[in-house]
Amino acid sequence: MPSICPGCSIGCGLYIEEREGIRIDYRKRSPVNQGKLCKFGVQLDKYYSRKVLKPRIDGKEVKLNEAISEVGRRLKSFNPDEIAFLSFGDTTNEELLAFREAAESFGSKNIDCGFGKFFGKIPEKLHPILKLGIPFEEIRSSKRIVLLLMDLYTAYPLLVRQILLAKKGGAEVTEVTLARTQHKIANEVIEVDPSNPDIPDFDDSLIIADLNPNTPLELVKNILSMRSKVLFMKPFLNSTGALHLGLVSDDIIEGIENERIKALYLLESDPIWVFFDEERIKSALSDLDLLIVQNSLETPVSEIAHIAIPGERFFEKRGTIVNIEGRILENGGKSMRGIEIIGNVSGKDFDGIYERVMDKLGISAVKEDEIPLKRKEGEIFLEKEKIPEKSGDFFLVYRTSPSFWRNFEDGKFIEISVGNAQKLNLVKGDRILVKSDSKKGEFAFKVSKIPDNIVVSGKKLPQGKEFVSPVKIEKVE
Amino acid sequence: MACYIAWATDDEIRKKGTSGGFVTAALVSALENDLIDAALVVKRIDVYEGIPILTSDPEEVKSCAGSFHAVPVNLTKYVDPDLRIGMPAKPCDARGVIEQAKRLQIDLDKVFLIGLNCSGTMLPLAMRNMIEVLCQLDPDSVIKEEIIAEKLILKTKNGEKAIKIDEIEEKGYGRRQSCRYCNINIPFMADLACGNWGVPKGKKGTFVEIFTEKGETFFRNAVDSGAIAFEEAEEKSIFTRKRIDEAMKKLAEENWKKLSNSLDGIDRLSYYIKSFENCIGCRSCKIVCPVCACGEDAKCVSMDYETDSYRISMFNLVRLLHLMDSCIGCGQCEDVCPVDIPLTFIHRRFAKRIQDILDYVPGVNLEKPPFYETKLMEW
């Protein structure tokens, strides 16, 4: 059955079959990826084979319909302003629109996909750039590309090919990075000091950067100050669909922390996975009066949920998504259980939801070879804003958004400079200890050509609560 | 070897089949007479998309009739070793199955390899693009495609358009690169080989050559059940087929020479390092390889560490060595490589030299790969 990889906003096509286990196959007909997959896509069988969520109320296993009735009953005891709905977009347009309509039926305006916090702080004329990417054809025909603080080999590996094709066509590629990789995709590498990140300006270029709920607003503004075209990649499959269907409101996590929001309904989303500072997020979510999780699989947040409701896995869902290019793609599943659950919770009937999605997206039929959503460029440029300095003299930095792929990939290691490896007298097989103020952990290491004042991780670590975090390292004796 | 012109007696199957419907009719007959448990066929979604399925339903087999030049799938890894299977097999499918049999993953006695002559396949999006740009047709308007007499025939509701394969390739479109230098067009390693080369003009039939007893059993079953009719192939047909095969082989060898010579005079080590430098480590090349049978404990995987910084990863180095005596050049690795590493070309360049030295062609019989039994010092 044709399906879409849920790994990121590219939305690669593939086949998936469940019969004595899950089998992934390559869909060469897909106009998005022509059958090519990254490490995550190839291992989707393992991703989907994780523990399935069981219906629970206050930690006790119950029947699904009991959990659903309890959600409706408990939500009604809150003022509409106290209830929030959050989905990062790892589901279909149809489920997201149903979620939005359910929120409206409870009178809540707090419905977000994690990106709303940028919209209130950036002029409306620039919103199209936050909402939508560009067709990959535009990457391939670019003459100057800047990869800004993102390692495409770690995140969005399918974009590497687009950049290589652009280079074949004569494009010059500049990489702005905290830590260079051994890959040589860039013609020029500019290393930025993590304690005082001064991002150079680029005009007449295509700037590719990652936008996720952890991205500092100053960095977003910095990028939007440049006289260049910008492609913000997003780590969730259908953020583009969510943004086009109106899942945009004030920062929900902030609302929870300042106690404006007391009840939260999460759809196919886990903020503990997504945000850098897991402890802070977990503590905020634990303080809620009501936490509802509708998810297909067990994730860290389901452990602290008051009510857990199992939806179906993404590949089983019937519906569409919008990829970062603005392409509307059909997922091959048949199930509508997720939508039915939202319907039962809110007492709404979602008949005609497919037609309403098409209407909102302005299309009459789903055609994967076409890109119906096109963005209008920003017309204005922001004033450059300084990125705050970091105190400290040695840092753990992330290669790219470490919440990418929901921390699914196996194996964690730290990259260390040649100088530090020599100083610590490291030999193959040794381990290094990375310590922050409150956390420490031992890791395997890889020696890389990076500056001596950093170690680098591609995955989220408790020691790294921000993109750049002060740490200390020593050899494990 | 026995050569026939055969065709389905069922008019509908004959009409739907590419060349007389022999393969479909014989598969259906094999299922109905319990010669096989299932047929491994490609289920058609449209001209550009098909999915391999194992089916015991004769109607489903009938619905899969027709050619799929834009579905470049290798069927080897879809074989269920527990079932008796009949499968239409391009030369690279048949060779993959034979290599898996050597590695004890498939019992050849349980598989009828119904070979299909093959002059190459195209990537679906490249085919769509070619149809749009070169033929100025809406790709979605094409309802059927066939290759007849070195021409690609595109059928639409309003008629048909033919374009010479040579012309397509001159203009930068056409077959996958691995198909352009593949010099095995008639699957002589299969139980029987079927195709339209040598079929007299105006006759809707399949040229069938039988190579093995199993092939004979498969053919006889279809004849005895009345599913097919046949006549002996005339000398002229046999000659025509041979001439086409030789011309295709010659072209493939020229293409290989041209491509392979492109590395002459350059620092090849630098070329290989450069080619592999963008590898993202997805390991798809191993997953799709019809020859690889090592599973997750493979040396290429277990010797490869994320913390290594080699300029060519151990994964790629071990695979280069491992495939030297076994690569059949099917092109699957290159198709799925997310960063377009010319994997098949690189593997074939290594493999061709070694296979020539060892006088060994993988996938054509059950002779074991030389590295199974030959110590490196011996040659």
Broad shape of chain A: globular
Radius of gyration of chain B: 21 Å
Total strand segments of chain A: 24
Count of separate DSSP helical elements of chain B: 16
Strand content of chain A: 15-25%
What is the N-to-C order of secondary-structure elements of chain B (H for helix, E for strand)? EHHEEHEHEHEEEHHEEHEHHHHHHHH
Helix and strand topology:
The complex is a heterodimer of chains A (477) and B (379).
Chain A: E1 2-4, E2 13-18, E3 22-26, H1 39-42, H2 44-48, E4 56-57, E5 60-61, H3 64-75, E6 83-86, H4 93-105, E7 110-112, H5 116-119, H6 127-131, H7 136-140, E8 144-148, H8 158-168, E9 172-177, E10 188-191, E11 206-210, H9 217-224, E12 229-233, H10 239-244, H11 252-257, E13 263-267, H12 271-274, H13 278-286, E14 290-295, H14 300-304, E15 307-310, E16 318-322, E17 328-332, H15 337-346, H16 353-361, E18 395-398, E19 413-417, H17 418-423, E20 432-435, E21 440-448, E22 454-457, E23 468-470, E24 472-475
Parallel strand pairs in A: 6-7, 6-13, 8-9, 8-11, 9-10, 11-12, 13-14, 14-15, 18-22, 19-21
Antiparallel strand pairs in A: 1-2, 2-3, 4-5, 4-15, 16-17, 18-23, 19-22, 20-21, 20-24
Helix pairs in contact in A: 3-15, 4-15, 4-16
Chain B: E1 2-8, H1 11-16, H2 22-32, E2 38-46, E3 49-55, H3 58-63, E4 85-89, H4 91-102, E5 111-116, H5 124-133, E6 142-148, E7 151-156, E8 159-164, H6 165-170, H7 177-180, E9 192-195, E10 206-210, H8 213-224, E11 228-232, H9 235-261, H10 268-276, H11 284-288, H12 299-302, H13 314-323, H14 332-336, H15 343-358, H16 370-373
Parallel strand pairs in B: 2-4, 4-5, 5-9
Antiparallel strand pairs in B: 1-10, 1-11, 2-3, 6-7, 7-8, 9-10
Helix pairs in contact in B: 2-8
